[in-house]
Specification:
The chain folds into 4 domains: 127 residues, Response regulator (Rossmann fold), CATH 3.40.50.2300; 165 residues, P-loop containing nucleotide triphosphate hydrolases (Rossmann fold, 3-Layer(aba) Sandwich); 94 residues, Helicase, Ruva Protein, domain 3, CATH 1.10.8; 45 residues, Orthogonal Bundle (Arc Repressor Mutant, subunit A). By secondary structure, the chain is of the alpha/beta class. The strands form 4 sheets. A 5-stranded parallel beta sheet has the order 2-1-3-4-5, with helices on both faces. A 5-stranded parallel beta sheet has the order 7-8-11-6-12. The two termini are 20 Å apart.
């Protein structure tokens, strides 16, 4: 998506600032709306807005309050904040609340446009690579883990013990088993409310931006670095930094992460100041570290630093004896999203127990939400479950009911199949399909156009 199709909503109580933002934004090709304060900003906000720019010191609701509301209601829309030249502490606080970047007043027009463009590109890449990344600061809802099996009872027991320590934790397991949820559970058991929980998805952030994303940069460190930027390590100060898919961390950044773990210090890109890293690191991966170490693509000393306390989360297929408990807990979450309570029949539960669940708990939750949207009289029956037909339709089902290797199937093809199947199940209703897929209605139109779905 080019900049000429981007919609910018800018809020500031200073008419001069609003005028400058509108002039610079329109000159760069943005479609600009302006608001004189937080109330007007929230009134004008909708799914068509691509980037939000807001002043932190507006009258109530101020920028911080608006950020919290935007993070909850429009989590896919990147927000950039305006702050005073000597308000670095406020900028860091704003990033913990979900802002992706900040601009200090007085600002240069080219600098403003560059920051807005970069903010959108970064969030767009994150969304396309991994939509569920829990990249939020403190103040989120309490995590409740369900010990639905003996294996999970042991995992939760270990997590509670680990939370009492300040050691680095490495969570391993297949994609979708709940490593991100477990990381937040450890954080909340230890740090409690008010402390930041900051997530970085190592493969989702473009390689050339990842170092700055993690460690920040100084003004002039590289082309486009027009201001100092605080990185995620610094933003997580006093709390937890969750490194998702840390096995994909580029080799050139591994030594810098090792310094954070070993010496509790780092430097911003282009900077000389040594900054203390008062942060607890929890990392997660689904890769075979021994293989990557043999291949020379991951440092063995970093692996040992990451795996001070390893916890392996078992796949869902190995913990189906208590599936009814897990289904019940997930349906409570689903009920909150769709606004109605749903139960599962014994026959549908039996069908779930015979399935391989290659996507683990994440797939189960999506399956339940989709079934809940279309079941009759609040009861999910076997006919409402689609996991079998989806696997068979890809040609990936083997005789044992599991998945063969899908290395020959692109992510775009899998995404296209998911959208087509959901649209068919929703009888072509794009708004309903978007809710089932947990994306905005605007996103489903964009994805259909990009993937050639008619």
């Amino acid at each position: 998506m080019g900049v000429h199709s981007l919609s910018l909503l800018a809020a500031d109580d200073d008419a001069v600032v609003r005028s400058l933002v509108a002039r610079f934004g329109e000159r760069a090709g943005f479609r600009v709306q302006v608001a004189g304060g937080g109330v007007e900003l929230l009134e004008k906000m909708d799914d068509e807005v691509d980037v939000v720019l807001l002043d932190l010191s507006m009258p109530k609701p101020d920028g911080f309050e608006c950020l919290a509301i935007l993070s909850e209601k429009y989590p896919g829309v990147p927000a950039v904040v305006l702050s005073g030249d000597h308000e670095a502490e406020n900028a860091v606080k704003a990033m913990k609340l979900g802002a992706v970047d900040y601009v200090t007043k007085p600002f240069d027009g080219d600098e403003l446009v560059a920051v807005l463009q970069n903010a959108f590109r970064l969030r767009k890449t994150l969304r396309e690579n991994e939509e569920l990344k829990e990249t939020i600061g403190g103040g989120g809802p309490k995590v409740q883990l369900v010990a639905e099996s003996v294996a999970m009872e042991e995992v939760i027991h270990r997590a509670r013990k680990v939370a009492e320590l300040d050691s680095t934790v490495l969570l391993t397991g297949e994609s979708g088993v709940g490593k991100g949820m477990l990381a937040r559970f450890i954080h909340e058991s230890d740090k409690g409310d008010g402390k930041p929980f900051v997530t970085v998805s190592c493969p989702a952030v473009p390689r050339e931006l990842l170092e700055s994303e993690l460690f920040g940069h100084e003004k002039g460190a590289f082309t486009g670095a027009v201001k100092r930027r605080i990185g995620k390590v610094e933003a997580a100060c006093g709390g937890t930094l969750f490194l998702d898919e840390v096995g994909e961390l580029p080799m050139e950044l591994q030594s810098k992460l090792l310094s954070v773990l070993q010496d509790r210090e780092f430097q911003r890109v282009g900077g000389e100041q040594v900054i203390q890293a008062d942060v607890r690191v929890i990392a997660a991966t689904n890769v075979d570290f021994s293989k990557k170490i043999r291949e020379g693509s991951f440092r063995e000393d970093l692996y040992f630093r990451l795996s001070v306390i390893p916890i392996e989360v078992p796949p869902l297929r190995d913990r189906l004896e208590g599936l009814n408990l897990l289904v019940g807990a997930l349906l409570e979450k689903v009920a909150g999203r769709i606004g109605q309570k749903v139960v599962v029949s014994d026959e549908a539960l039996s069908k779930m127990r015979t399935y391989h669940w290659p996507g683990n708990v994440r797939q189960l939750e999506n399956e339940l939400e989709r079934a809940a949207a279309f079941c009759e009289q609040g009861m999910i029956e076997p006919k409402d479950l689609m996991m079998d037909c989806e696997v068979e339709s890809t040609g990936l089902a083997n005789e044992g009911g599991g998945l063969q290797q899908i290395g020959s199937i692109s992510f775009a093809e899998i995404e296209k199949l998911a959208i087509e199947k959901t649209l068919k199940h929703c009888e072509g209703n794009k708004a309903k399909a978007a809710r089932v897929l947990e994306i905005s209605e605007k996103s489903i139109y964009n994805k259909m156009k990009r993937l050639g779905i008619h």
